[in-house]
Amino acid sequence: MPESEQGPRTNPAVTPELSRQRLAGTFPGHLGIELWEIADERVRGRMPVDERHLHPMGEVHGGVWVAFADTVAAWGTIRHLPDGSGFSTIELKINVIASARAGDVLNAVGTPIHIGTRTHVWQVQVFRGERLAAHFGCTQMLL
To answer: Which CATH fold would you assign to the domain 3-142?
Structure first.
């Protein structure tokens, strides 16, 4: 069956183990972001919060929320990339609706809204415990 009838191809070699290897020594790796599920229709990650994530008032910095959610979405896109392609986040938005402090653990679930040949659109929900703490959306352009 042609790819257009099957939908986009995915790369099952893109796994949590691969993400651990690739994130080591990078910005998301330094933040302690861990991905524990990378599937075609869902990516899940976690980030234990410590002092490095906080702004001067003791809450998680806005840039950390974005970095965590964008990393989760990015690995969803990586799983769907055609061979030899790259990508870049070209638009993003986040609503942080609950705070987090050192000692909290944030968990994220990313799902695709659109997987096209030129762009991908992902949403990521970030939870502190059972509470929704942030909702993130982004568009990624395939290069």
So the answer is: Thiol Ester Dehydrase; Chain A (3.10.129)
